[in-house]
Specification:
- A hairpin with a 2-residue loop joins β4 (250-257) and β5.
- The longest helix has 26 residues, at 3-28.
- The chain has helices spanning 3-28, 31-45, 56-80, 95-99, 101-106, 109-115, 120-131, 136-143, 147-164, 172-188, 191-197, 222-234, and strands at 198-207, 219-220, 240-247, 250-257, 260-270, 273-280.
- The protein is of the alpha+beta class.
- The two termini are 25 Å apart.
- The protein has a 6-stranded mixed beta sheet with strand order 2-1-6-5-4-3.
- The protein is built from 12 helices and 6 strands.
């Protein structure tokens, strides 16, 4: 590459970087893996003859999708051996992500867990079509399938997700109100206050990755969750504080033990009550929570 060509390639990559990271993160649920995909994408992009590229966005998305698919097949096997429950890596997001309702919903903990049940190619097709509105022909090139096959995969993936996605989606305001009630309840430690804000069939998923204590299996039911939480905090020799955060485009809480970040709690709200709790304690998944991660469906202009 000449210096001018390198500069053009670099400029195009930077303009699309946040978009490519978002695509990879939606497919993988891991910021660390998404960063690796970006690095692999750049290495391949840097060797491309730009004179033959009519649409840099489409070309870069194609490269990153292929790299993410390769990694997704690898991490699927790795996650089968994961200690306890696996949850996506939480990210502190910028206000514009919250304002993009479709993007925020697609990267909510609940929705990303639904996408985890898709086969790798199904997830790639679903993400590109439903989240990023990529055309079938472009998707076909990214996943090495025919456009007709991609349409069939997209239909199958939509049906699969539709059967498993959360029944209702609360607004950011409703989620914030429920989360604030939950925060007050856990700070006071009043069992009835906790029961009042939790749906009777609420489910708690907690991810310690074998590095921090967490429930190895889902805890189901408001009363069981209250007993689990109050029993756990009673054994702590540290002061617990909870601070509001915006994680994956939705209101959440960050837990601190003696002022040190210990975990992030995301929630799913239905009919003003919390129906799902997602508590990430694995320290390897908390490394990026000291700053906002820019996520977007658009390239920089």
């Amino acid at each position: 590459m000449t210096d001018d060509t390198t500069a053009l390639a670099t400029q195009a990559f930077i303009a699309h970087r946040n978009l490519l990271f978002t695509v990879a993160y939606e497919m993988l649920g891991s910021a660390a893996d998404a960063e690796d995909v970006l690095q692999e994408t750049w290495l391949r992009w840097a060797t491309v003859d730009l004179g033959r590229v009519s649409d840099p966005r489409a070309y870069l998305v194609r490269i990153s999708t292929r790299q993410a698919l390769n990694r997704l097949r690898t991490v699927k096997r790795r996650r089968e051996a994961y200690v306890g429950q696996w949850l996506p890596e939480p990210l502190i997001t910028t206000p514009d992500v919250t304002e993009d309702v479709e993007l925020a919903e697609s990267m909510s903990m609940a929705m990303m867990l639904v996408m985890e049940t898709l086969a790798p190619t199904e997830r790639a097709v679903f993400v590109l079509r439903e989240v990023f509105e990529v055309g079938y022909d472009e998707i076909a090139q990214a996943v090495d399938k025919s456009p007709d096959a991609v349409r069939q995969i997209a239909h199958r993936a939509r049906k699969h997700v539709g059967a498993r996605r959360p029944r209702t989606t609360a607004s950011a305001g409703e989620a914030q109100a429920a989360l604030e009630s939950f925060r007050r309840a856990i700070e006071t430690g009043n069992p009835q206050d906790l029961l009042d804000v939790l749906a009777p069939d609420v489910v708690l998923l907690s991810d310690g990755g074998g590095l921090k204590k967490a429930a190895l299996h889902p805890v189901v039911g408001a009363e069981k969750i209250v007993r689990f939480y109050l029993g756990g905090t009673a054994k702590l020799q540290a002061t617990v504080t909870w601070e509001p955060a915006v994680v994956n485009g939705s209101p959440a809480l960050a837990a601190y033990l003696d002022g040190v970040l210990d975990g992030v709690m995301a929630v799913r709200v239905e009919n003003t009550r919390i129906a799902g709790l997602y508590f990430v304690r694995n320290p390897e998944k908390l490394a990026r929570l000291d700053s906002e991660t820019p996520l977007t469906r658009q390239a920089l202009s």
